[in-house]
Amino acid sequence: MPNVAEPMYVIKRDGRRENVMFDKITSRIQKLCYGLNMDYIDPAIVTMKVINGIFKGVKTVELDNLAAETAATMTTKHPDYAILAARIAISNLHKETTKAFSSVIEDLYNENAEKLNSTIIYDRDFNYNYFGFKTLERSYLLKINGKVVERPQHMLMRVSVGIHSEDVDAAIETYHLMSDKWFTHASPTLFNSGTPKPQLSSCFLLSMTDDSIEGIYDTLKRCALISKSAGGIGLNVHCIRATGSYIAGVSFQFFK
């Protein structure tokens, strides 16, 4: 008897197998096309490109990542494809993370958890374009064992709570201002606020400790510790002797 080819299948998030269905993939992409210019955006074309790139046993997460990357490559055809790519990627993240902010940031306890949870507007995650979201995913969203466990709105609330601590109303006001893109904090604040090492400063101005081996390497150590926490450094070296100066205790001149 001839071998019957096994149908292409996908591994669902709960571990179940399901045959790959063109219409189901297209329907998922279609649902994320709200408000886009459908004269130029074609979910079916995205689906066809995705199906051409999948393999038996592909995971749903991988399928979504491929769909997002595919849509992103089509941005040259119309900028709305970048919006669609971001929506697919963010929707994928939402399916992989818990919704409750209090579950993501365990330091937020009983008294204010409900108020903070109800404040967060997750639909605002979809206001990021694909490249903005991927930047957050790569560098800013908190990870455990390399897996992103934080949504963009979680990050903004984490930063707000980290800054304002027990002043919940101020934290909520800051969250809304950042979430609505009125302003954003600098990278060290986004990295570190609400974490065990809340170093929020962006810039540090240092002077060379001394014109000596000890002074130079002590300054280098200080710079390394600042860089470790994402601080920027401005360093003046005015006390370092000029090229050609004699060095006390040795029989040669100082050269570059």
List keywords for this structure.
256 residues; two-stranded antiparallel sheet; 11 helices; 7 strands; mainly alpha
Description:
With 256 residues, the chain is mainly alpha-helical. The protein contains 11 helices and 7 strands. It is elongated and about 80 Å long. It starts with 8 loop residues before the first strand and ends in a 20-residue tail after the last strand. It comes from Caerostris extrusa. Pfam families: ATP-cone (PF03477), Ribonuc_red_lgC (PF02867), Ribonuc_red_lgN (PF00317). Provides the precursors necessary for DNA synthesis. Catalyzes the biosynthesis of deoxyribonucleotides from the corresponding ribonucleotides.
Give me a quick take on this structure:
With 256 residues, the chain is mainly alpha-helical. α1 (22-31) crosses α2 and α4 (80-96) runs parallel beside α7 (130-140).
Chart the SSEs and their pairings.
Blueprint: E1 9-11, E2 17-19, H1 22-31, H2 43-52, E3 58-59, H3 60-73, H4 80-96, H5 101-104, H6 110-119, H7 130-140, E4 143-144, E5 147-148, H8 152-164, H9 168-179, H10 187-192, E6 203-207, H11 213-228, E7 232-236
Parallel strand pairs: 1-3, 6-7
Antiparallel strand pairs: 1-2, 4-5
Helix pairs in contact: 1-2, 2-3, 3-4, 4-7, 8-9
